[in-house]
Amino acid sequence: MIRYALRCDHDHGFEAWFGTSAAYDDQVARGLVECPLCGSTGIKKQIMAPAVAGTRRSTSAPDTAKLQTMMMQAAREVRSHVERNFDYVGDTFAREARDIHEGRSEKREIYGEATPAEVRKLKDDGVPCAPLPPVPANPAKLN
Predict the structure, then answer these.
(1) Domain membership of residue 69 as a residue range
(2) Which of 21, 35, 44, 55 is most buried, by the most CB atoms less than 10 A from its CB?
(3) Can you spell out the DSSP letters for 28-79?
(4) Total number of domains constituting the chain
C-alpha cells in the first residue's frame, strides 16, 4: 500500500491509500479520487518523504513510567480545576444538567454523580456531559 499526500484544485489537502502507483494514476484519470471537503476531482500528488522500513530496531523505547506519571498529573489537574471552578450538585447531577440544558435552571458549570443509566439518557437527549477523571492515587503513597 502507498499513502499519498494529495491536494485538490481548491487547495484542500488530504491523504489517501492506493495499492500501487499505477492504481493511483488509473483512479485519478477516471475521476474516482475526489476531495473529501469539496468533492473536486482535480487532484494532484504532493511531495512526501517516503516511509522506508529500516532493519535496525530503535534503541530508544518510550519511557512508559514517565508517560504514566504525566498522564496521572494531567488527570489530577483536570479534576482539581473542576473542583475549584464548578458547582458540586451531588447525586442530583442528571436532573440539574437537564434543567440547565433545557433553560429551567441558571446556566453554570456543574459536577456531581450520576448512574450509568442516567448518563446514557442525558447523552441520548443531547445533554452535554463527560466523566470526571477519578482521583489518581498519590504517587508518594504508592508502594
Answers:
(1) 64-138
(2) 35
(3) HHTT----TTT----EEEPP-------SSPPS----HHHHHHHHHHHHHHHH
(4) 2
